[in-house]
Amino acid sequence: MPLTDILSDILEIQSTSGDESPMRAYLFNLIQQRSKFWNVQPEVFSGRQVHDCLLLKFGEPRGAVFAHMDTIGFMSRYQNQLVAIGGPEIEEGTTIIGKDELGPIRCKISESNGQLFHNFPRQVVPGTRFSFEQQIRINENFIQAAYLDNRLGIYNAIKLCETIQDGWIVFTTYEEHGGGSMPAILNFIQQKSPISFGLISDITWVTDGVTHDNGVVISVRDKHIPRKSFLDEIIKLASESNIPYQLEIEDSGSSDGREIQFSPYFIDWCFIGAPEDNVHSPNEKVSWADLNAMIEMYKYLMHHL
Prior knowledge:
The protein is of the alpha+beta class and 305 residues long. 28% of the residues lie in helices and 30% in strands. The strands form three sheets. Strands 1-2-12-3-13-17-15-16 form an eight-stranded mixed beta sheet, sandwiched between helices. A six-stranded antiparallel barrel has the order 4-5-8-7-6-9. Strand 7 and strand 8 form a beta hairpin.
């Protein structure tokens, strides 16, 4: 599976939690350019009414696919201090990049007594956002880069736009830093064109029970537990599809699915995504075969659910 222009573009865009507008702008422009080639022309909801979220309504939705646009990262504090955005993996000497009103910044992270610092030679404007410096490495079997979580989830959602007949495709914000936009999004959707289920297009972990090259992961549970009868329907369809998949059972981790479960609406949900190594680091690694299975599974499920 080659590195497409879209995937290359979105891997280079910085959009830490709370600063998703660059990604939203890229996706909005992409939709304007590409949607005329899609099977169904979506109704697009964007702008101040939905902050930096982006919602696409195709046909008569029964369900929705949610992909978060934000990433983990860092924010400058005072002097040369940093505070984390979300839960980045900290490795001494990791290069991070950002930009303040005085210009672009490239520096390295250090940690001392539980606090984070950067080594940029001048004072950085407080509140400046930083991301891992991107280095994309690909071969015939794997892609390795920063922020595959959740750039691959976004890419899957974009690919689904090409063929979907009925459904919402929603690009969300704040997922990596406590959530926040999903309650308003769900209220918006249920007023416009209600749904009964949501699929979470996100990236999960390689563990002792989930491995590379064994297919897309259907999460039976993480910290939260979806409704079993809906999971049974998902797994039955997945088996009928002949698309490779594997099941995940964990007791930690979370996603936009948590927000659905905690909402005041009777909406089923399931997390479905490719597994990765080196989570929340500059070296996240995903199998092309698993990503392809993810893309094909979403097409199949959104057609049959």
